Amino acid sequence: MKKRAIILLLSTMILGGVLSACSSNNNSNTGASPSPTATVSPSEESPSVSPDTEPSEEAGETPSESPSASPSPSASPSPSATPEPSKTPAPTKEPAATKKPSEPTKKPAATPAPSAKPSATPKPSPKPTVKPSPSPAADASAGDVIEAMLKAVEQPALMAMTADDVKNMYGIDTSTLADFSARMPMMNVKTNEIAVFKVKKEKDIDAVKKGMVSRAETVQKMFETYLQDQYENAKNYKIVVQGNYVLFVISESADDLVKAFKAALKS
């Protein structure tokens, strides 16, 4: 036990001398960073003093004080002065060149010039309804038209037909007629006949014409074996349409009666 105590005392004395030497070196060399090799020397000298192997356990406790002598390298954080490069953002002055696009806005003002061309369009105006219906006096009665025809062209004695006669002989529905007048010969030896029908609607003209054709065929059959000249007369019948008026005529002077019919409607 005495030996151990002696060894401990010696080791502490050695360590104390080493530590004091290190501190003196640190004070003399303040600008230089202390090398960590000085801390290792105490551990190498301590085993040389103890001849016995037993103090190795206690000697291991002494190096625990050596780390206190290691200097802290806290003096190195000097690079804090680098933030000078912040002056580079100056080139932001270039966007001033954006003033150029303002010039092209003056050019579109010249486009409204083509507006003067449409002035030539008024030409189609002189196209009115120049061709009215050739129908003449729409208020002329069918009886007046026949009277004007008979005054212009002489015919054998004729008598007027009734509405029933028209239905039976022509097969025409008188409800489709606005006016009508028909004359047939008073003597059975003649085929001369004149009829004027004024329809309410033009779509009924075809039905009236069919009735007239049927009437002509009936007269032809009546005289086919009776009087040959009257049979030939019945074959040369005329049907003429003038506006809403339809004329049916059997006569040796059929062409002259047609002219008188048209003249009566124009007057």
Could you explain how this protein is built, in words?
This protein is of the alpha+beta class and 267 residues long. It is 37% helix and 11% strand. The chain is built from eight helices and five strands. It has a five-stranded antiparallel sheet, sandwiched between helices. α1 packs antiparallel against α2, α4 crosses α8 and α6 packs antiparallel against α7. The longest helix has 27 residues. The relative contact order is 0.09. About 26% of the residues have low confidence.
Provide tags for this entry.
five-stranded antiparallel beta sheet, alpha+beta, 267 residues, single chain, 37% helix
Output the number of helix runs.
Answer: 8
Total strands: the figure is 5
> Quick one: biggest sheet?
5 strands, antiparallel
Report how far the terminal alpha carbons are from each other.
172 Å
Structural class: alpha+beta
Shape: rod-shaped
Helical proportion, percent range: 25-40%
Mean pLDDT reading? 72
Name the strands of the widest sheet in spatial order: 1-2-3-5-4
The succession of helices and strands, N to C, reads HHHHEHEEHHEEH
Strand fraction equals 5-15%
| Spans of at least 5 consecutive residues with low confidence | 29-83, 95-99, 128-136
Evaluate the radius of gyration.
Answer: 72 Å
